[in-house]
Amino acid sequence: MSERGRILVVDDEPAITDFIALGLHHEGYEVATAGDGHQGLRAVDEFKPDLVILDVMMPRLDGFELCRAIAGEPRRGIIILSARDETTDRIHGLELGADDYLVKPFEFGELLARVKAVLRRRTPDLNRVVQVGDLTIDTATREVRVGERQPDLSVREYDLLHFLAVHAHEVMHRQRILDEVWGHNFFGDENNLEVYVRYLRQKLGDADHQRIQTVRGVGYRLHAVGGVAQE
Q1: Model confidence, pTM
Q2: Distance between CA atoms of 113 and 227, rounded to whole angstroms?
């Protein structure tokens, strides 16, 4: 199970569900999809999502009725997607229990920001602790432990380590790391990343580069060392 949370996407347009699911998978979420309201209702019971993203105009059971049926669970968020942008529709959706209402067409980045905001409100303890082998990161206190040791990390070192830990065992391209950790407006070069990887290795006791592995020509991968690997 993903440490970031489970998300169910309900829409009768396969292109939309595939687009959203692919993006959310890439961000580390566990995702299921459903093609109409009835399938969505069953998936809520079986998949037990932390968040449901649903379309309004669907056959058999529309999004408003689905929202009405699944609202009320304190730890489950709901985001409505719709081509209908009338104020009355927005109000109706929110009154039925939705946390947010996003009008189509939309940018994935905006949807992702709203997903994160809803999950923070609904499941504040979700993803508080990230564990990869004997490396533990408490995201609430920003405390890092390696076995019994507690290395003292700078803000940038922590952000880099946390990003690699969330995507543990995946090869992260250098440019993506720079974009996510340093920001899209960063005008430096990859030397900055190499410097901070070296700092982290020193502080984590990773002299043999088994924990933070270099993938030549691509980037870096955080590997579990000791303890139990995060699934």
Answers
A1: 0.59
A2: 33
Alpha helices (H) in 37-126, listed in sequence order: 37-47, 63-70, 87-95, 108-122
Domains of the chain, earliest start first: 6-122 (3.40.50.2300), 129-222 (1.10.10.10)
Q: What is the pLDDT of residue 18?
A: 95
Our measurement of the distance from residue 174's CA atom to the centroid of its chain's CA atoms, rounded to an integer in Å, reads 19
Contact 72, 81 (CB under 8 A): no
Name the strands in the sheet holding 212-215, side by side, starting at the edge strand that comes first in the sequence.
172-173, 219-222, 212-215
The pLDDT value given to residue 227: 59
How does DSSP classify residue 39?
Answer: H
Task: Note the pLDDT of residue 130.
Answer: 85
- Residues of the chain with confidence (pLDDT) below 50: 1-2, 228-231
